[in-house]
Amino acid sequence: MPASGVAGRILIVDDEPANIYLLQSMLVETAGEIRGVDDSRQVEHVFAEFEPDIVLLDLHMPDPDGLEVLRRLRSARQSLGFLPVIMLTGDTGKVARNSALILGADDFLTKPLDRDEVVLRVRNLLRTRQMYVDLARANAALEEKRGRKP
To answer: Do the Cβ atoms of 84 and 54 come closer than 8 Å?
Structure first.
């Protein structure tokens, strides 16, 4: 388990392999496993196969862009409950941020990335994700227990 005490799976989506490598190096001690995707057309497949606990998603990529990827992942994320997405962008405009928030983004990191900020934000959202998963398991166990009573 990483030093942070959280062992989540992180999916990084960015069309620049150097950005993926940078984020992997920043988060190596924060995650249990990290996977990077530099082709946004592969995100849905990798998401389903890898089952991440958090997604770091670049806003500006070739088609489909980050907003479209966020749209496409909406139903998969909803079926999993709370699964955070952090948008990565150099765009400081409100239109891009608001569009991403409307589509379900949970946070933003502005490029150039600050290592400490990246680690703290990812770690905090991974902890929240873990609490959600733990609560869902506890609720399922209670429901099962109730179902067994005569």
So the answer is: yes
- 146 pLDDT above the threshold of 90: no
In a domain, 20, yes or no: yes
- Within-domain flag for 2: no
User: What's 66's domain CATH number?
Assistant: 3.40.50.2300
Average pLDDT taken over every residue of the chain: 90
pTM: 0.89
pLDDT value for 1: 47
Helix axes 66-79, 94-102, angle to 10 degrees: 20
**Number of structural domains found in the chain:** 1
